[in-house]
Design brief:
mainly beta, four-stranded antiparallel sheet, 2 helices
Length: about 150
């Protein structure tokens, strides 16, 4: 049986959950494919895959803060409506709980922020922490293929 090593190409089902439930779950859809080390999963999650054999199904509990770091208060901030208009759709209506994608400064990638609040002027209070930052994470994996 093939074993997961650094750089392995994987086909797998996985589920990430925090205390409030699932954040992502591929078990009821098409399996995910990824290359270990590509940044698709956090380094802490990838580390736990190393050494697992193809066909393995396992559920792991990852201690609070280890999978996605601790929550950082400075990663919550107001974004002016003017800037949101420049970055996206001027007609967009933001609601608490929405997840909004922003371009990285170099324009080559993106990052997400969760809307916490919208004020009367249209400015939006975003949380740019990962939704599972600072929380215990359940990581369930079924390795379908390892190349």
């Amino acid at each position: 049986m093939p074993i997961v090593e650094p750089g392995s190409f994987l086909t797998l089902h996985y589920r990430l959950a925090g205390p409030q439930g699932d954040i992502i779950n591929t078990f009821n859809e098409k399996p995910a494919t990824l290359s270990l080390g590509s940044g698709t999963l956090s380094p802490a999650l990838e580390q736990r895959l190393l050494g697992l054999a193809e066909g393995t199904r396992v559920v792991m509990e990852i201690p609070a803060g280890e999978a996605f770091g601790e929550r950082i208060a400075d990663m919550q901030q107001w974004v002016a409506r003017k800037l949101l208009n420049e970055l996206g759709d001027r007609t967009e209506k933001y609601v608490a709980g929405d997840v909004v994608q922003f371009p990285t400064p170099d324009g080559l990638g993106s990052y997400a922020g969760t809307v916490l609040e919208v004020n009367a002027q249209g400015a939006v209070w975003f949380d740019f922490n990962h939704p599972l930052a600072g929380q215990t994470v359940t990581f369930e994996v079924q390795l379908i293929g390892v190349l």
